[in-house]
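Handoff note, outgoing to incoming analyst
You'll be picking up this chain. Sequence as last confirmed:
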Amino acid sequence: MTTKMRSEIAEQPAALRATLDALLPRVGEVERLAGQTRQLLFIARGTSDNAAVYGRYLAEAHAGRLSTLAAPSIATTYRRKLDLDGVLAVALSQSGRTEEIVETLAWAKDCGASTVAITNGGEQSPLAQAADLALCTLAGEEKAVPATKTYTTQLAALAVLGLGLGADVNADDLQRVPDAVEKLISDPGDLEAVVEGLADKPGVVVSGRGLAFSTALELALKLKEACYLHAMGLSYADLLHGPIAVVDEDTPAILVAAGEGPTLAGTVALAERVTGAGASAFTVGGGTALAAAGTAALNGPDLPEWVSPLGLIVPGQLLTEALARRLGIDPDAPRGLNKVTQTD
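Most recent structure output, in case you need it:
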């Protein structure tokens, strides 16, 4: 029986094409709004927060815009007013109905920020209605609790945002993303070996750096929520500052990297260190160099680093779904979780 999660993973190429077709013509709207601002504030929780990490790295590495992740409790719990003049506040919510995120975006506007919403909830969702500009993704209804197509389309919207910020990238690269994702779905690499390598393990460390850091965080979250693993998502720089001590025969590492870019060499070196210490290093992406340094490899997309996270997560999604089934867990409905999470 095919799970809803697996079906929705397969829907991603179409969802990405539809989203890019809808949002790429709106780059000029983003440019006009962003032209009034100097820096970015990303407002999100959960999977959307991981997407925001991609947005932050893209804005800083390619558009030269200082960016940060908001602490919504400053708005909703401490109720402090800040000076956000010159700030572009970008709120992400798959449903567009998470009250904390809607309230925080309204707070940001009240503090002087220009506001953008990224949501799959449509133009009439509370979040879209609260924003100066709404970039609505077209993933369609997502029924499985673990986010897949709503996450990758959020990344697509953030890539469009990056173009509007003036990122020094080739916009044509985005048109290659749906086909690259389709290829990964049909050929994710040595999926069975990685599933078996994790099936008897209580925990795993997932690590990447730079633009791939968002993928490491998102894959760790998926393994926690759908497979009940103690999964830790870390930048490899932070991993080397102490937590690498937990990587051993019982705690393997999953290492994520684009096939090019300044963080690839360090990820390869980390894989060699992990395997040299007798632990397993399962790799995602990173081309032949990272695959050769690891224990078993999942494929990455044939895409430039700046858009690689839109594809890098896909083998991780397939891994999560397959591992959950291997463990006897229904990945569509993990215990204790709902599709829309409300926080105080």
